[in-house]
Write a structure and sequence with these properties.
113 residues, mainly beta, three-stranded antiparallel β-sheet
């Protein structure tokens, strides 16, 4: 997912259980965090304070998303875990105002939170 505010970064997740923040300007990795579960989807909240991560086996997590600053702890922390579905989460999307989160999974269901 790309920065909703147009900041020069984007994030990726992967099956190796890693959330990564990349610099568009420098074409380089800014931050890498192990989230403990294989990842299948990611979405940054509109205010860029949270990141939602879809996982295998119907799980998703929401993490706080501090700006990486060398002068303070900028390690994201898990603030929510959900295991409502069985199939992999294939897409996550925040509403434009950031109040709602949609999670789509491979069993053809979209849940709204």
């Amino acid at each position: 997912d790309v920065s909703p505010s147009g900041q020069p970064y984007f994030v990726t997740v992967s099956a190796d259980c890693t959330l990564r923040r990349w610099s568009v300007t420098h074409h380089a990795l800014i931050q890498s965090v192990s989230v403990g579960l294989p990842c299948t989807a990611v979405a940054i909240s509109p205010d860029e304070t949270l990141v939602a991560i879809g996982h295998t086996a119907g799980r998703f997590t929401v993490w706080d998303w501090p700006d990486p600053q060398p002068t303070r702890d900028s390690t994201p922390r898990c603030v929510l875990k959900n295991t409502q579905r069985v199939e992999d989460i294939c897409h996550m999307k925040w509403s434009p105002d950031g109040r709602y989160l949609a999670a789509a999974c491979r069993d053809q269901v979209v849940d709204m939170y």
